[in-house]
């Protein structure tokens, strides 16, 4: 459980680095993430006293900056897995909304623990598919050393790179959440409406269980 909580912090920190500016397709996604991340981290340091006094300040920062740069619909579709095809348009929309809110709360809770960890981006190498990208980085910590983080991004119709999944220290968050949702559907005896309402990504469950 302790290891999972640590992994979730790095997930939150990694995704938060995506905020800042939108990127044109011609821009190297690594450079885009690095510039955006530096700008955000500067703000987190500057506003730390304010959000320590009032957590809502941090939630507002997260919601404003995260939403435009994460492919929540694609992320949610991957988490629903095989059940996405079975779901109605209304169920898909409800799941995406619930999943988005849960992750935003999780990111905000995780970033409250940010303490000037050093971020090291690896050299970027384009893949075979020009509409997909992978950016690797390490989060340097005093207790755990270098924690590897991989962003999986997609290029949308507006030529904007958006994150669709994150892998931290070998833990694929999209796959982890997909397995959790499948378990929720099973425990709901196949009732998709109930599963959507009851589903809580593990990061939120861990937070509530502390």
Helix and strand arrangement:
Blueprint: H1 2-16, H2 29-46, H3 48-53, H4 55-66, H5 72-80, H6 83-86, H7 89-111, E1 118-121, E2 132-141, E3 145-155, E4 161-168, E5 171-172, H8 173-187, H9 192-198, H10 202-209
Antiparallel strand pairs: 1-2, 2-3, 3-4, 4-5
Helix pairs in contact: 1-7, 4-7, 5-7, 5-8, 7-9, 8-9
How would you characterize the overall build of this protein?
The protein is an alpha+beta fold and about 210 residues long. The chain has a single domain, classed as Tgt2/MlaC (Nuclear Transport Factor 2, Chain: A). The chain is built from ten helices and five strands. It has helices at about 1-15, 30-45, 50-55, 55-65, 70-80, 85, 90-110, 175-185, 190-200, 200-210, and strands spanning about 120, 130-140, 145-155, 160-170, 170. Strands 1-2-3-4-5 form a five-stranded antiparallel β-sheet. The radius of gyration is 17 Å and the shape is globular. The model is unreliable at about 20-25 and about 205-210 (pLDDT under 50).
